[in-house]
Amino acid sequence: MNKIIGLALLVAGAILLYFGYTEYNSTASQVTEMVTGNPTDNAIWFLVGGAIAAIIGVGMLLKK
């Protein structure tokens, strides 16, 4: 059962990372980054959430 949850977390993390990457490269994020020096909050949250979910998913898959 843990392997299924780990795989689901890994897939969800990959999807969130994809959305974060596309949000980071969006026009709105680039304009915000040019003005404030930081990308949009959505891009950061998607990237951080995706990385955490992917790391936990890999950890669950590799755990015996």
Report a brief summary of the structure.
Keywords: Membrane, Transmembrane, Transmembrane helix. This protein has 64 residues and is mainly alpha-helical.
Which terms would index this structure?
3 helices, elongated, 64 residues, transmembrane helix, transmembrane
How are the secondary structure elements laid out?
Elements: H1 2-24, H2 27-36, H3 41-62
Helix pairs in contact: 1-3
Report the biggest beta sheet as strand number plus sense, adding barrel if it closes. Answer: none
Encode the helix/strand succession as letters: HHH
For the secondary structure, the number of strands is 0
How large is the count of helical segments? 3
Cα radius of gyration in angstroms: 14 Å
**Anisotropy-based shape:** elongated
Distance, first to last CA: 12 Å
Q: Any low-confidence stretches, pLDDT <50, length ≥5?
A: none
User: Percent of residues in helical segments?
Assistant: over 70%
Count of individual domains:
1
Overall average residue pLDDT: 92
Could you tell me the strand content as a percent range?
under 5%
The secondary structure category is: mainly alpha
Overview of this protein structure:
The protein has 64 residues and is an all-alpha fold. It has one domain. The chain has helices at 2-24, 27-36, 41-62. Keywords: Membrane, Transmembrane, Transmembrane helix. InterPro entries: DUF3185. Pfam families: DUF3185. The chain crosses the membrane at residues 43-62.
